[in-house]
Amino acid sequence: MTILRNSAVSEDPALGSIDHAVAAARECLAGAGLSAADVDVLMNVGVYRDANIVEPSNAALIQRELGMHLDYEPGSARPGFSLDLRNGACGVLNALQAANALLANGTAEHVLIVGSDAHPGGRADATDFPYATVGGAFLVTKGIDATTGLGAVHLQAAPRPDGAHPGVAGYLDLKAMGRDGARTITVEVADDFTERVIGVARTAVRNYLANHPEAAADSTVLVTNDPAPDFAATLAADFGFARHHQADTGSRNAGSSGLIIAYHQLIRSGAVREGDQLLLVAGGSGPTAGCVGYRVPVGGAG
């Protein structure tokens, strides 16, 4: 099965989104005793980007800064590939789903997932930008047994009538922004977003547990991003989980790397041991939520 071999977080508020992704990736690889040359596929799930860069893909820019397979090497079995995969706070779950498939069919041996967000104008303290300037990285590889590691990813979208607000909407009004477009972003959060994201997360967890009863034990540790205050505590109380951890990035939302940060903080706290069952849950704009079970493998968690 697929395992999270290592994780890392970058928190310097002076950095931009690319630098955060690169810093987290380097720390993650170094902690696993690997280099960028060992990575087969890089996936970037970041949403809010330096200068609102769309093209080239931010994954390509991160790949360049890492020095990951920059030149074509004839005969090399490791061509290296990178892509952006955007689905807000749930993008990391999509990336884990894709990594699981690439590892299972032998396309890749090491998949690196990075997520990071920053105000496009470098204003980490902007009061109208609700996201923390942070980044995170997962190194995903094959495990050594069939009983530990990641389960199947489940994603759940809340029903939304045409024209209804998605809960969180980040956009750039090009006509209004004019020449400041590269340094400006508008983020709208609906008044009822908290209730709606908890509601769809509740549905996602309920449906997941119905198909994966092994994750329903009260000893399971619930690990979540932070789309709303007490997100993890509310879900833990609803489903009877005795332990939970929610990403902590102060008063600002952890954004696209929220689930990575939550996992990393929990692992570094020493509260998780080999064989423990985790349930990783993320919720975000859409509203959309998703989850995946994870049994901590032999040798512990990275």
Automatic annotation (TrEMBL):
GO MF annotation terms:
acyltransferase activity
| InterPro entries recorded | Thiolase-like (IPR016039)
A biological process from GO? secondary metabolite biosynthetic process
Q: What is this protein called?
A: 3-oxoacyl-[acyl-carrier-protein] synthase-3
